[in-house]
Records
---
Amino acid sequence: MADKSELFPGTLDMLILRVLSRGELHGWGITNKLEQLSKSALQVDEGSLYPSLYRMEEKGWIEAEWRMTENNRRAKYYSLTRTGRKQLEHEQALWDRMSAIITLVTQSA
Amino acid sequence: MADKSELFPGTLDMLILRVLSRGELHGWGITNKLEQLSKSALQVDEGSLYPSLYRMEEKGWIEAEWRMTENNRRAKYYSLTRTGRKQLEHEQALWDRMSAIITLVTQSA
DNA sequence: ACGCGTGCCTTAGATTGTCTAGGTGAGAGC
DNA sequence: GCTCTCACCTAGACAATCTAAGGCACGCGT
């Protein structure tokens, strides 16, 4: 319960999809990318990341392929499917809508 | 799983505290108020609302008192404690921070 | 040649918060 | 007296995250 990240449940999928939308990446790379993009504000836990990836693969939003990294290590590269791209749009819209509502309520209340 | 509310877990407490910050209200009244403030975009489930209220009462963020409503019905009026007010500030800050991060990531990714 | 740091993946449980879906009781209006 | 609405309560299912541990293999330093 530190004042670390504390991501809102449901937003991780969206962030991962978002990062993958610029190109394929392996799990560890996704973590790094998110940390970098958020200026170290986000530290995605591996115990959250991988289950999330499996869920999304099962749902067909992303697909995986084993390859070698530049460091010559085996890694599972994930990339967005067409369905995943739609899902990203959907989640993004939902997020926008919800955060607008929350802003509305917190400002008028 | 309709395209109804689908509140992000963790935000309900903040919204309730926020509504209570303008004055005491009973559970049912909180539901109405949130629905009204969000222009019907939020329909808070009673099965989420009451557990949330109990949690917060136990944590000392709010306190309850049985009274009569204008309609002559008994209702439990909740009001913010000093601790609750601080908690609201804290959660508000967290929300602002998190949504800024998400905006940052989704725009740069 | 060996150990160790690091890159990278995996997974079992606990925890937390929400939703589903039922129920209770009592005033008000017909 | 019947039904509608107000108003509260709760058990159980479910979903997503975190905790915490373990595993394998490359490459570097010595």
---
Amino acid sequence: MQKKHYQTAARSALLAYLATSGEHPQSAEEIRTGLAAGGHTVGQSTVYRLLADLCARGAVKKYHAGKEGEGFVYAFVGAHQHCERHLHLQCVRCGAVRHLECDYNTHLSEHLRAEHGFLVDCGRSVLLGLCASCTEVKA
Amino acid sequence: MQKKHYQTAARSALLAYLATSGEHPQSAEEIRTGLAAGGHTVGQSTVYRLLADLCARGAVKKYHAGKEGEGFVYAFVGAHQHCERHLHLQCVRCGAVRHLECDYNTHLSEHLRAEHGFLVDCGRSVLLGLCASCTEVKA
DNA sequence: TTGCGTGCAAAGGTTTTGCATGGCA
DNA sequence: TGCCATGCAAAACCTTTGCACGCAA
């Protein structure tokens, strides 16, 4: 059961900010900077605490940062309430995370289970690569 | 082009240790402890530097640690010289990483490319879940 | 009024870097 | 002999925690 929470300035600002930034993953520090740019100064610990809370509620998802060794990035989940059912595709260039809403998920999970005895946890699995947009501008 | 390197005691010990520990991923600190247990005291910075070097040469692979927020684990690559061609399955319980040597890799990559415009970088993609062994003892 | 939320600062853990010394080729 | 490698310690980084005060309900 979710712990109750107050509607505070920091919480509202964070939610509003995440909503406008779409599902583009950002680090805690980037989020804090973004909030500050919008006139909302929020302590770093508050950012982490709010993100952890939202994460627990399923409103935000936490991914490994694209660049290794650099902690985590957070993305607003929005309408995606079934992340445990599909795979995730993260672009190593732009950082965007796409949710693979496709029957292929089922095929893959079934294949791995039947042929390899491996139970995939889709919600936590992220495939890395280049998204369509970044492929086009591939330098 | 690879930078040349000397054959030093620390380097030999690390390689020997990794060879015996198979492909089971370990953290830098675990590796250091393991070396110490074998009578080889190696400075922590040396461990990191050697791992980074081996990683660059493709002899060692670096994965996110199973538990989030806890850095990385390293695994000996050994005979797997084609990690860029297959997916990786990491067990969230025991930490083992398996290389998916199966035609399914091709299917998946092709599907994602054709249907979703996403170019998967298999070598860096890791699917999380439960391996066969851990599924059996699922508590 | 109650107790959660917040900010600051300090703590924690892991990885990286600077520097002088030591060792391989 | 020339460089690379190593160790120690300090620095850097990101994240978490402790504590006292503030604010929502």
